[in-house]
């Protein structure tokens, strides 16, 4: 099956074989023309050259993948709205892609672009295994490639080849299967690790869509598919595949550390590193990092949690991010961040035993009683001058009042009568004052609250001596 697919890409077989021959002439001068190192490194160099040429497509793939992640909620809403009209659903999807500038096939571009080179290399190695000249590989190079072994396994043999074919190339079937099996496992493990890094660190954790579940499922399915396909590929193709998987893994790690997806754990780690650098040096020298800061500033209230945390950290350090990505020292921003940046912590009361709580309660009661007694004495002292003042004013009024001589006798009788009442009033007020003076002591003994005792003190009659009212005021 793979032979027929590889024949479809025969047009690119000659360029691929020519590149391999050029690298072989370079490494053959160092390690020897017939060694596995010369041919193996030639294949590795071919992979590196192809992947460097595909870097622009990889960047486009990253942008397309992130746009698809952002559009997943809108796509789901369109599917729910037009679930009974497939044509309208497709039209709305295409309209959404056009408005956002997203191409769903962009995420597959690197894989599609690598496929011709992959099958062309498979075609070249199959010709070497069948002792057939192909592309730029002549008879001398064909003999050299057949002698080349990688860890004892010929480049052109497969995991499922029989022992006679392997023995004809000067190797044992056991060695071939061990080497091929290890390479297949490493290839699958690198694929799984790369996909897992993408799903756990470089995905917006605030967006939960079916697309994420699909990617999570493919994370476990792809390694199994590669293991099943790997047993049908020559060792040289496994070298190519393992190399390209390792390249992809390193490339993804670089993207995760330097250009993470907004809202992901990788972005949080990146912004914390950037915050540490900015607070240490007071500025950001990298143009790419300044561009990222400018993007965060331009978002305004639409920033995610990681970006808000980054801006708050800059403010606490006295740095204000500008629209061009630069940082300016600002004492006002630092003061505001220092005042309102942290939340007030709730102070927990200290633990106390039952005896300590009882002792503190008794002390509080004694303090309240003492305060009540002090207030009562102060009120009594304040009331006495007022009473004397009023008593001094009344005789003046009596002397100044002018009445007829015929009415003076009754007024004397009335004043005498009131004089007796005043004496009895003074006696009563003295008794009441004594009773009020005894009330705090009684309340202290009974243990009543301070509010109740103060209420009793205020509800009684006015303390001190009370003068009778003048007849003219009745």
From TrEMBL:
Residues 355-371, 379-389, 419-439 have a biased composition (Low complexity). Keywords: Cell membrane, Chaperone, Membrane, Protein transport, Transmembrane, Transmembrane helix, Transport. Residues 337-474 are annotated as: Disordered. GO terms for biological process: protein insertion into membrane; protein transport. Residues 460-474 have a biased composition (Basic residues). It is a multi-pass membrane protein. The keyword Transmembrane helix applies. The chain crosses the membrane at residues 12-31, 37-59, 104-125, 166-189, 218-242. GO terms for molecular function: membrane insertase activity. It is found in: Cell membrane; Membrane. Residues 39-256 form the Membrane insertase YidC/Oxa/ALB C-terminal domain. One of its GO terms (cellular component) is plasma membrane. It holds the Pfam family 60KD_IMP. InterPro entries: YidC/ALB3/OXA1/COX18, YidC/Oxa/ALB_C, YidC_ALB_C. Interacts with the Sec translocase complex via SecD. Specifically interacts with transmembrane segments of nascent integral membrane proteins during membrane integration. Belongs to the OXA1/ALB3/YidC family. Type 1 subfamily. Required for the insertion and/or proper folding and/or complex formation of integral membrane proteins into the membrane. Involved in integration of membrane proteins that insert both dependently and independently of the Sec translocase complex, as well as at least some lipoproteins. Aids folding of multispanning membrane proteins. This is Membrane protein insertase YidC. It comes from Streptomyces montanisoli. The lineage of its organism: Bacteria, Bacillati, Actinomycetota, Actinomycetes, Kitasatosporales.
């Amino acid at each position: 099956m793979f032979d027929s697919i590889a024949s479809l890409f025969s047009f690119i077989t000659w360029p691929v074989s020519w590149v391999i021959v050029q690298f072989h002439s370079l490494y053959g001068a160092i390690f020897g023309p017939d060694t596995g190192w010369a041919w193996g490194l030639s294949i590795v160099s071919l992979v590196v050259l192809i992947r460097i040429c595909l870097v622009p497509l990889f960047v486009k793939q990253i942008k397309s993948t992130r746009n698809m992640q952002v559009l997943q909620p809108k796509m789901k809403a369109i599917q729910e709205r037009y679930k009974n009209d497939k044509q309208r659903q497709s039209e709305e999807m295409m309209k959404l892609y056009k408005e956002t500038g997203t191409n769903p096939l962009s995420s597959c571009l690197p894989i599609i672009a690598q496929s011709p080179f992959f099958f062309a290399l498979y075609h070249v190695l199959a010709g070497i295994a069948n002792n057939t000249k192909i592309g730029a590989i002549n008879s001398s190079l064909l003999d050299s490639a057949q002698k080349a072994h990688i860890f004892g396994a010929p480049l052109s043999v497969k995991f499922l080849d029989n022992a006679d074919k392997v023995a004809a190339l000067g190797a044992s079937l056991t060695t071939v299967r061990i080497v091929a099996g290890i390479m297949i496992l490493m290839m699958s493990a690198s694929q799984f690790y790369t996909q897992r890094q993408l799903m756990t660190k470089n995905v917006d954790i605030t967006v939960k869509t079916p697309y994420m579940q699909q990617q999570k499922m493919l994370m476990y399915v792809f390694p199994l598919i590669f293991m099943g396909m790997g047993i049908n590929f020559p060792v040289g193709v496994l070298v190519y595949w393992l190399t390209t998987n390792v390249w992809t893994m390193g490339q993804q790690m670089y993207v995760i550390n330097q250009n993470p997806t907004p809202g992901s754990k990788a972005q949080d780690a990146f912004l914390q590193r950037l915050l540490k650098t900015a607070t240490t040096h007071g500025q950001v020298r990298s143009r790419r990092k300044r561009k990222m800061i400018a993007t965060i500033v331009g978002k305004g209230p639409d920033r995610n949690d990681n970006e808000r945390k980054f801006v708050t950290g800059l403010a606490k350090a006295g740095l204000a991010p500008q629209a061009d990505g630069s940082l300016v020292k600002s004492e006002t921003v630092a003061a505001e961040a220092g005042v309102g940046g942290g939340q007030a912590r709730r102070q927990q009361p200290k633990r106390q035993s039952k005896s300590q709580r009882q002792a503190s309660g008794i002390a509080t009661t004694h303090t309240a009683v003492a305060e009540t007694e002090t207030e009562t004495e102060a009120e009594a002292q304040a009331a006495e001058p007022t009473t004397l003042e009023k008593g001094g004013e009344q005789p003046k009024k009596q002397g100044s009042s002018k009445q007829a001589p015929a009415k003076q006798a009754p007024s004397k009788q009335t004043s005498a009568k009131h004089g007796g009442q005043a004496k009895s009033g003074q006696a009563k007020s003295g008794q009441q004052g004594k009773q009020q003076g005894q009330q705090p002591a009684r309340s202290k003994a009974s243990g009543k609250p301070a509010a109740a005792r103060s209420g009793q003190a205020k509800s009684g009659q006015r303390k001190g001596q009370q003068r009778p009212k003048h007849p003219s005021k009745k």
